[in-house]
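Input record (one chain):
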Amino acid sequence: MMRNWILPEYISDILPSEARQLESLRRNMLDLFARYGYEQVIPPLVEYVESLFTQEDSALDLKTFKLVDELTGRQMGLRADITPQVARIDAHILNRQGVTRLCYAGSVVNTRPDGLLSSREPRQIGAEIYGCPALAADVEVIELMRESLTLAGLTESRLEIGHIGLFHALADAAGLAGSAREELFVALQQKDLPELKAAVATLPAQLQAGFLALPNCYGGEEALQLARKNLPALPAIVAALDTLDALNTALRLRGIEPRYDLAELRSSYYHTGLVFAVYAPGFANAVARGGRYDSVGEKFGRPRPATGFSLDLRELSHLPYPSRFPGVLAPAQDDPALIEMVRALRASGEIVVVDLGIVSGEANCDRQLVKVDGGWQVVTLA
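The corresponding structure, as predicted from the sequence alone:
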């Protein structure tokens, strides 16, 4: 007989303690985003599949569940990432001039998990800036990302920064396209040095040296100096390294000590420039990722520079759960004065639980409402 309570692999219920933590984090982070000037949008969980990708993106396509719309016969998808939806809203619906700051929070669904400990239903939350190509937007997003993680209780973390433009500049100079470019990209992404050496074996010596140098450009400021020394001085490479140098200065002025991994390509479904990720002790995966994705709205008829970050609240779920606040236990009586008292306490922010007389104290109450001299009072629960 089928066990109807069994869930699909990498799909799980969220029980009270974790749900309390996730909802608290969601509210606090959205409030933080609002203080920075970000407006919340809530895209639909399902829409036509053509709108769920910002470009021809095979990786995101593979992660997207697809179904047929019974009303139109068109193919629809369950979103695997909210950023393309927010790009559609910015480009096609809001259609504002100048800078637009947007944020979001909601579930996404993936056909496969990102890792053995990952869920196929992440609770994604993020913030994005549209319409600003300047480095100041990237600095703001990184600062907000770090502050969000601090708000979640992550006091120890490591920020790693890369730049997709370095790979693309080298690949363009080598004339790589199609599967050859994809294979080289994967080899770099996985830091598979034997495969990387094989993939670049037929390229000119200067470009070979550039590709092979990228995995070694890792660490603090010295990684940027090593890149200047070992990468060919192509205009796009010089521009990317200038951006990284300027970002390094801006972040250090804000008390943020970045590290660099110039072979970091893991955030690159649609990214075009800077990419960044935050890692923390005790977490198998990055706890937050982001980067720049210029011209992200091109598919929707309005190319716009953009930068942003997102994280999965469920990845943070093994942090200590917040305590459940004790409440006030109220008797189940049809007394107008009691009803009014209960309403007043709840309006003031107190948790008030009506005692249904089945299990005493099941509601984590440390006080109770009792009638004293004809009036109701809150007293310590014996």
